[in-house]
Amino acid sequence: MLYAHGLTELTFTSQDEDPVWVIWFNDDGEPYECWVNGIEATDNKLTVLATIKDSLEEVTCESPFELGASNIDWLNEMYEAAKLELEGTKNVEP
């Protein structure tokens, strides 16, 4: 969807009331609940820009698309947030 709009990155500005939430685990297996601020896409990876709920620290997570697909609900929520940001629509089939 980003490429269709001539973009490789997108910052979510319209999700103040309903942000996309994800949980990441550090190398020690500790979970961090984060809200997603934006995404960046390249041919071989997706970078998620987020803020940790408790510390308000900004973080990034880079992974191959296949790894991100293990969290399909999160990817769908990020897709919906991107669609809302770019087209002003929500819950529309891709």
Q: Quick gist of this model?
A:
The protein is of the alpha+beta class. It is 21% helix and 34% strand. It starts with 8 loop residues before the first strand and ends in a 7-residue tail after the last helix.
Which short descriptors sum up this protein?
single chain, 94 residues, alpha+beta, five-stranded antiparallel β-sheet, 5 strands
Note down, in words, how this protein is organized.
The structure is a single chain. The protein is an alpha+beta fold. It contains two helices and five strands, in the order βββββαα. The chain has helices at about 65-70, 70-85, and strands spanning about 10, 20-25, 30-40, 45-50, 60-65. Strands 1, 2, 3, 4 and 5 form a five-stranded antiparallel sheet that branches. The protein is globular, with a radius of gyration of 13 Å. The termini are close together. The mean pLDDT is about 80.
Element pattern in H and E: EEEEEHH
Shape: globular
Q: Over all CA atoms, what is the radius of gyration?
A: 13 Å
| Range of strand content | 25-35%
Helix content: 10-25%
Structural class: alpha+beta
Give the distance, in angstroms, between the N- and C-terminal Cα atoms: 9 Å
Largest sheet properties? 5 strands, antiparallel
* Count of alpha/pi helices: 2
Number of strands: 5
Mean pLDDT: 80
Low-pLDDT runs of 5+ residues are none
